[in-house]
Design a protein that fits this description.
The chain is of the alpha+beta class and about 450 residues long. It is about 30% helix and about 25% strand. It has 2 domains: about 5-100, Nucleic acid-binding proteins (OB fold (Dihydrolipoamide Acetyltransferase, E2P), Beta Barrel), CATH 2.40.50.140; about 125-440, BirA Bifunctional Protein, domain 2 (2-Layer Sandwich), CATH 3.30.930.10.
Length: about 450
């Protein structure tokens, strides 16, 4: 049976007859001779009110139409006399599809985020998480649209890998071995140690060196024992790579991407963004407009450290050259000092991975981080080291086995070109665009230390 989504009904300009709506009951209120049902099908934040008269076919099931029950309602869309809603549904037939008993946990009351995480299989039915995951869906489309409209080729990179992109070793092992002492790595399924990927960047570079501009958008994993609000063991990464591109071109694209995503959220997720502004982060709308409208400031890492040290501000983490900037430092630069979204570039070699191109000073690499207010870093990228001799030296500098990266080094032997790219966690982007402060609440089923439920 065909049905009409509630979002289309509420956007209609004319009454309609013989409409079928399918959804879940948010509330039921009974009056003498009729009942009011608030219906939601997940297509939008707003509910549709249905009026069911006594004697309507199927109305004998009304006592069982409790919060959470699923129903099919047929009827006519007519102007609503109630304030705050344009249309209502006058039912001509109602059918109970799936009852919900009194243990249904999403009754009409406030729920904590912590509680809702324990019922991740039901929380998308709440207003907040319905809005979050509609926004996630639309922004995933926006990511693809951004790159496809610029002639980037979408590449699926491996989830199982033998390469450690970051050189940090915080990876999940993939194995069929039982852990017995006599079982050697070469007896494993792939004949060598393999892991869940932390990044598709290295593989994306091989395609950039053939197809010019490419991007990945897929799941990545990090075995980092961190329970902060910004880290998860499984998350989605967006990673473009561009051949014949330097650090400036990389920064240009990263800044353009962030502005485009903020603009898309304001224009295409307006109802849900308004909800976030009201109930999650009252400053969200202004912050998104701030990023859309203001040009990015670009500052070298060395200068950024000097600014932080001279600020007179007491930071939880002391600032010194040779250390990564913390979120509080990044937010100070964007929100208080520059009062603008900011890109920091040219970081010390020691704190960045082996694949970043060494600058002429032999002390810094062509790294860049894109910072936004409210979050701090949302993008990390770099021009890649395309020179074969320097790449070999970088691997030694970071104490990595060159043979493990033989194929990556091979790219530098056959038609090497300057190339650059960046990576950003999709969930971190969603935190920025929704104002939701915990990564566990912008991913459907969070995977964190000690938690792999659902």
């Amino acid at each position: 049976m065909k049905h009409t989504l509630i979002k289309h009904i509420l956007a209609a300009t004319q009454p309609r007859e013989s409409v079928t709506v399918k959804g879940w009951i948010r509330t039921r209120r009974d009056s003498k001779g009729f009942s009011f049902l608030e219906l939601n099908d997940g297509s939008c934040l707003a509910n549709l009110q249905a009026i069911v008269d006594a004697g309507t076919p199927g109305s004998e099931a009304l006592p069982h139409l409790t919060t959470g029950a699923s129903v099919v309602v047929e009827g006519n869309i007519v102007p609503s006399p109630a304030p705050g809603q344009k249309w209502e549904l006058r039912a001509t037939r109602i059918e109970l599809i799936g009852p919900a008993d009194t243990t249904y946990p999403l009754q009409k009351k406030g729920h904590t985020m912590e509680f809702l995480r324990t019922i991740a299989h039901l929380r998308p039915r709440s207003n907040l998480f319905g809005a979050v995951f509609r926004t996630r869906s639309k922004l995933a489309f926006a990511v693809h649209d951004f790159f496809q409209s610029r002639d980037f080729v979408y590449v699926h990179t491996p989830i199982i890998t033998a390469s450690d992109c970051e050189g940090a070793g915080e990876m999940f092992r993939v194995t069929t071995l039982k852990g017995k002492p006599e079982e050697k790595p070469e007896a494993d399924f792939f004949g060598k140690p393999t892991f869940l990927t932390v990044s598709g960047q290295l593989e994306a570079e091989t395609f950039a060196c053939a197809l010019s501009n490419v991007y990945t958008f897929g799941p990545t994993f990090r075995a980092e024992n961190s329970n902060t609000a910004r880290h998860a063991a499984e998350f989605w990464m967006i990673e473009p790579e561009m051949a014949f591109c330097d650090l400036k071109g990389d920064m240009d694209l990263g800044e353009e991407f962030i502005k485009a995503m903020a603009r898309y959220a304001l224009e295409h997720c307006a109802e849900d963004v308004a909800f976030f502004c009201k109930f999650v982060d009252k400053g969200l709308n202004e912050r998104l407009k701030f990023v859309v409208e203001r040009p990015f400031v670009r500052v070298p890492y060395t200068e950024a450290v000097e600014i932080l040290n001279k600020s007179g501000k007491q930071f939880e983490f002391p600032v010194s050259y040779g250390q990564n900037l913390q979120s509080e430092h990044e937010r100070f630069l964007t929100e208080e000092h520059f009062k603008s979204p900011t890109t920091v570039f040219n970081y010390p070699r020691e704190i960045k991975p082996f694949y970043m191109r060494l600058n002429d000073d032999a002390k810094t690499v062509t790294a860049m981080d894109v910072l936004v207010p409210g979050i701090g870093e949302v993008i990390g990228g770099a021009q890649r080291e395309e020179r074969p001799g320097q790449l070999a030296e970088n691997l030694k500098f970071h104490k990595l086995n060159e043979q493990d990266y033989w194929w990556y080094s091979d790219l530098r032997k056959y038609g090497t070109v300057p190339h650059a790219g960046f990576g950003l966690g999709f969930e971190r982007l969603l935190m920025f665009l929704t104002g939701v402060s915990n990564i566990r609440d912008v991913i459907p089923f969070a995977r964190t230390p000690g938690n792999a439920e659902f």
